[in-house]
Design goal:
By secondary structure, this protein is α+β, with helices and mostly antiparallel strands. Helices cover 29% and strands 24% of the residues. The longest helix is centred in the C-terminal third of the chain and has 14 residues. Bound molecules: dihydroflavine-adenine dinucleotide. Its cofactor is FAD.
């Protein structure tokens, strides 16, 4: 390659100082590689900073390949098995960062997500990693000996380039389509990106009865899909002004496709149809009061209105058929979202660089030696609960060990 004479030379340039990029840079630096990290943001790892409500759900003790969505579900196995939640936990413990398990294996910092950023920065410092921030990259070209990058702070050359610029979620804090643009430049296939782990919305007129319920939260079973592709989660559901959110809906949103229904069991442990019929002989209560012993009263009012039931009716006076219908509606409430809150609110981007283009051991592009994609840029998307960071760490390490 006819390298520009003034280009500063590195062994590795990592573009993106987020979770995967910093992890990759620290591992490569500590192997003695000369590493430069470039990011267009002024601050390191903004997403880590805001993650987990500021406490960063940094991994999940139970993380395994089944917790990830991808067109090729096997792809993530190798990296995940070689860098496990326990490996990251050992790092956390070495830095004496206090943490706790919230539920279902989700590990959070006791104090602040900043602890994780400081730890990754310290790990990079141990590897003498260099930084260009804020700094954009306008061009990447490939020659016989490596890559030449044009940056806002002058050209740099490197044998390896790692693209760690993430997905499209939360453009406000710096998300761009950089990884997909570079993928296209090198003729790599991309699995259509779309918002995931995102609140779902409903047509305004059909949502009207539920608007006053905004803020109500309850544990539900939520599912979507059919026999072959059914996904189901038991998590908290949150009513919002425009639709549904909370962990339950964020989880199911990653599996949901436009036009599909979601089904919510508002009382997963109760066969409400049976309870209502049984209550005919044992209660003098009206429908609204009876249901209020199972669900928040405001929610009962909204649901009865939406399903066309009069809450003042005495249960004893109602036909079994009507009671069963109501019970089934509560145990299997079917809704069709009209969309999602989009990248503005999505925690991650589903899709990305097609994994068939990459080595599952190293994240290197099969057709372009020296070019790597790690983290959320790749078509590997974790469930809610610390899985996305575990993928960022594991894929970052996989590349960091070989670049
Ligand atoms: P990441 O997005 O972290 O980093 C990409 C970097 O590239 C950024 O620093 C960005 O500035 C830079 N960049 C982008 N475009 C560029 C360009 N054109 N030029 C130069 N630099 C560029 N996950 C989890 O496991 N537990 C959790 O608690 C949470 N919580 C959470 C909350 C919220 C609000 C969001 C939005 C997301 C989460 N996530 C999460 C998801 C998690 O944050 C995400 O999956 C990882 O940060 C992905 O790591 P990456 O390193 O791939 O991208």
């Amino acid at each position: 390659m006819a390298h520009d004479k003034q280009a500063t030379q590195y062994d590795v340039v990592v573009i993106g100082a987020g979770a995967a990029g910093m992890m990759c840079a620290s591992v490569a630096g500590q192997r003695g590689r000369r590493v430069l990290v470039i990011d267009h943001a002024t601050k390191l790892a903004e997403k880590i900073r805001i993650s987990g409500g500021g406490r960063c759900n940094f991994t999940n003790l139970h993380a395994g390949p089944n917790n990830f969505l991808s067109e090729n579900p096997h792809f993530c196995k190798s990296a995940l098995s070689r860098y496990t939640p326990q490996d990251f936990l050992n790092l956390i413990k070495r830095y004496k960062i206090a943490f706790h398990e919230k539920h279902k294996g989700q590990l959070f910092c006791d104090e602040s997500a900043e602890d994780i950023i400081r730890m990754l920065k310290a790990e990079c410092d141990l590897g003498k990693v260099q930084w260009r921030m804020p700094c954009g990259v306008s061009d990447i070209s490939q020659g016989e000996q490596g890559f030449l990058l044009q940056t806002d702070q002058g050209p740099v050359s490197a044998k390896s380039v790692v693209i760690a610029t993430g997905g499209l979620s939360i453009p406000k804090i710096g998300a761009t389509d950089f990884s997909y643009r570079i993928a296209k430049q090198f003729n790599l296939k991309i699995v259509d990106p779309r918002p995931a782990l995102v609140p779902l919305t409903f047509e305004a007129s059909s949502w009207e009865p539920f608007v006053p319920l905004s803020g109500i939260s309850l544990e539900v079973d939520i599912e979507t899909g059919g026999k072959k592709d059914k996904a189901i989660f038991r998590e908290d559901l949150l009513f919002t002004h425009r639709g549904l959110s909370g962990p339950a809906v964020l989880q199911i949103s990653s599996f949901w496709h436009s036009g599909q229904a979601i089904r919510v069991n508002l009382l997963p442990e109760v066969d409400l149809a049976q309870e209502l019929v049984d209550a005919k002989t044992s209660t003098k209560k009206n429908l609204a009061n009876f249901l209020a012993s199972y669900l928040p009263a405001r929610l009962v009012d909204g649901l009865l209105q939406a399903h066309g039931f009069d809450g003042n009716l005495k249960i004893a006076d109602m036909q079994d058929k009507r009671l069963r219908l109501l019970g089934e509606r509560m145990n299997r409430w079917e809704l069709i979202p009209n969309g999602s809150e989009g990248y503005r609110k999505a925690e991650v981007t589903r899709g990305g660089v097609d994994t068939r283009e990459l080595s599952q051991q190293t994240m290197e592009v099969k057709q372009v030696p020296g070019l790597y994609f790690v983290g959320e840029a790749v078509d590997v998307t974790g469930w809610l609960g610390g899985f996305n960071f575990q993928w960022a760490w594991a894929s970052g390490v996989a590349a960091g060990q070989v670049v």
